[in-house]
Amino acid sequence: MAESLVALSSPLCDLPDELLLEIYGHLDDESLLWLGSTCKILHFTALHFLVERHDIKDPTDGWIFLYDSPTVVLKALRIALFLTKLESLSCYPNGNLRRLLGEISEISLLMERLSSLKSFSVMLSIVDRWIRYDAKDSKVLDETVWYNTFTSLLELAIQKSCTHLCITGGHSIHTLYCSPRAVSGVFFLLLCLHSILMQ
Fold first, then answer.
1. For residue 1, is it within any domain?
2. DSSP, res 62
3. Which of 40, 57, 59, 170 sits between 20 and 30 A of 50, alpha carbons compared?
């Protein structure tokens, strides 16, 4: 049995780290994510390389700061075995609306696997800027979907014993609602917090 397991081992795992890093440098983000999902050895080296490529400080230090990061980085952090404890998570979700809901969901999935989280910050200023300069009168955001997605994220932060919760920006999101009865950004935030605290 041991011989068959050895036979399944990839010769790629036997390469020196320097050569692996050279190979990783030629791969795109999605390829690194898939490679990091093949075995533990490649998992640790490929996913570390991927997050460092996007200027994310070593997440094993206990904090992560995400600024305009590709969704694939959030996926990598979500599956990263080396990320066992996180005290602080700060993120600036991308302004592109097609990516916004997916990123908020990925952040929730990352947070779900953590035992606790002391500090959580979501800065929506990039989203506000995108709405101001690029959205051009598009009413494309389902208010209920946004409300449920964002409220779930905040609930999860509270469940993880978060003692510092900071939300900034997002004042313009209500202008994208499909519904004419859409509430303002400040009222939306109060609604989210009220529904969480009433549970």
1. no
2. S
3. 170
Asked if the structure places residue 22 within a domain, the reply is: no
Which amino acid type is present at position 138? S
- The answer as to whether 132 is a domain residue is yes
Rg (CA), the chain: 20
Cα 34–chain centre separation? 17
Give the residue numbers spanning the domain of 194: 86-199
**Domain count of the chain?**
1
Bridge-partner residues for 121, per DSSP?
90, 166
Q: Which two three-digit tokens encode residue 111?
A: 């947070």
**Helix H segments across the chain?**
2-8, 17-24, 29-35, 40-53, 71-79, 97-112, 125-130, 143-159, 185-197
Give pLDDT tens digits for 140-181: 777 888 888 988 999 999 999 899 988 888 887 777 777 655
pTM over 0.85: no
Q: Which helix (H) or strand (E) covers residue 90, if one does?
A: strand 88-92
